[in-house]
Amino acid sequence: MGNHISLLLVIVPLIAAPLVAVLPRGRLPWAASFFVSVVCAVFAGIQLWSVLQGGVISYELGGWAPPWGIEYRIDAVNAFVALIVAVIAALTLPYALHSVEREIPEEKIPTFYSALLLCLTGLLGITQTGDIFNVFVFLEISSLSSYALISLGKSRQAFTSSYQYLIMGTIGATFYLIGVGLLYSQTGTLNMQDMANILPSVLHLNTVETGFTFIMVGIALKLALFPLHLWLPNAYTYAPSVVTVFLAATATKVAVYVMLRILFTVFPQTFTIATPADELFIVAGMAGVIIASVYAIYQKNIKRLLAYSSVAQIGYMVLGIGFATATGLMATLIHLFNHALMKGALFMAIGAIIYRIDSCRLDQIHGLGRAMPWTFGAIVLGGLSLIGVPGTAGFISKWYLVTAALEQSAWLPVAVILIGSLLAVVYMGKLIEALYFKPVTDNRKVVTEAPLMLLMPTWCLVLANIYFGLDTDLTVGVAEQAAAILGGMKP
Amino acid sequence: MKPNLILHVIAKFIIPLILLFALYVQFHGDFGPGGGFQAGVIFSAAIILYSLVFGLENAEKIIPHHWLRILASLGVVIYAGVGIESLFLGGNYLDYTFLGSNQIAGQHLGILLVELGVGITVASAMLILFFAFAGRGRE
């Protein structure tokens, strides 16, 4: 097997997707998808382990040697991100069984799982490939399938929000492609490593700078960096619960990974620091943290509240990129992992509420926490992690982020991170107040706890939040290696 | 639909030619311009022309909708399957060299099969799109 694992990680869901689409209705499509997601998670685990043991994996597709052929090149950075994506998928699918049966029309269920697997293929493909054009191809696979997934939401707004995302996402992907084209015109290569070798000699050209800008704006659209986040709240709010969980925990993370790769592997690090890019990232990150958190406070819809919180969290990750130091990159990578855990847990718990009362309006959930104690517990613990209370995973990422800011004596970002956490206390407090302390509305039917199949994956993620808040060997250890690879430096 | 003699005669004459040309583009793609994508589009154009002239119901009798779904999936499976096959034969994914007795035969067979998969998927996806839009508002 050996290196083939890195390839199978992408091919297994790819080949499963068309097969699942033609399976008969019933639970078979779900079972097949679940099996595939577990296989992927195992492969991703083995891949990370062998990368940590033996260094970089390089796989030549079709036997064509790079830089002519497409190369999958896996180091600690992408093995780490691939593991996040695959594990979240493996946890989302058991959750999906009941939630999808409730929210998706029966005749669409096989296609739904097929699209979910295609989305997984795309996201894993982005992480695996070492070819800058291949990234675009996988970006389109994951985006097109996620447009379809979002449009399957129950309300009519799902169509408009999916369409909105389609327009914004296509602009983002096109900008990325224009940028890649410009870089190709100057370097004559699409392989990331090869391009990294050639770029230093052509860095002074305007074409290269323009290409860099196009790529950055394109990816910033895909990762919903403030103020390019406008598609995200609607898409997350109106998508089916399962899709929100999966996309919130993976899609933006993968886009952050692409940004890291381009900034630190393809371009020399000095280029980012010499251009205003790093300052812009810090400004956009700070604005995103504050403004999106304030927006979150005023939301009447709990999914939208968490969606705005996601925009704020992306702000933290971009802050870490903006510092362009080893600690900053570590903070970004740790938060990438931890945010997937906390938002996954929170959106799963919200999905359990929607499963029971078929609504996600803040004034419909009054007193629900007492009827659904386990779901409520998950929201409280997930919320604490989101705020960054010591003992939870959120604390670790904020700790490293503040350390990175202090290293540079950047006091404003430190203040922004702390204010952002306080604002998170306010919006999570609002959610918890409505769930527990508000009196139950009279005209509601009796609500019971969510089924076990929804609670178990949720609590897996909640417990992971606490585990990775106490034992940071995996996250910090891998992030340290990854930051060293990206930055070519030791913290 | 009002029968239109000229359209009917011309369409009956031209549809086999379009299908034949699609197959030519498909299988001559590795020697000249062409390939699976173009061939798939041309092939589906013939069936779309048929349904424009002879009506949607008749066209759906030739290719029922659930068949299209299976065919669209089949094409992807053929493509990915060729890659898996070369894995089993000891090469890297999609390394066609291992498919034949020598390198040229292997590369030839590989690209032919992969393009066949592309052609099947493109043709059926085009028809699925056409029927989805043309069939709107019927019921």
UniProtKB/TrEMBL annotation, chain B:
<dbReference type="Pfam" id="PF04039">
    <property type="entry name" value="MnhB"/>
</dbReference>
<keyword id="KW-0812">Transmembrane</keyword>
<feature type="transmembrane region" description="Helical">
    <location>
        <begin position="68"/>
        <end position="89"/>
    </location>
</feature>
<keyword id="KW-0472">Membrane</keyword>
<dbReference type="GO" id="GO:0005886">
    <property type="term" value="C:plasma membrane"/>
</dbReference>
<dbReference type="InterPro" id="IPR050622">
    <property type="entry name" value="CPA3_antiporter_subunitB"/>
</dbReference>
<feature type="transmembrane region" description="Helical">
    <location>
        <begin position="109"/>
        <end position="134"/>
    </location>
</feature>
<feature type="domain" description="Na+/H+ antiporter MnhB subunit-related protein">
    <location>
        <begin position="6"/>
        <end position="127"/>
    </location>
</feature>
<feature type="transmembrane region" description="Helical">
    <location>
        <begin position="5"/>
        <end position="25"/>
    </location>
</feature>
<feature type="transmembrane region" description="Helical">
    <location>
        <begin position="37"/>
        <end position="56"/>
    </location>
</feature>
<keyword id="KW-1133">Transmembrane helix</keyword>
<dbReference type="InterPro" id="IPR007182">
    <property type="entry name" value="MnhB"/>
</dbReference>
<protein>
    <submittedName>
        <fullName>Na(+)/H(+) antiporter subunit B</fullName>
    </submittedName>
</protein>
<comment type="similarity">
    <text>Belongs to the CPA3 antiporters (TC 2.A.63) subunit B family.</text>
</comment>
<keyword id="KW-1003">Cell membrane</keyword>
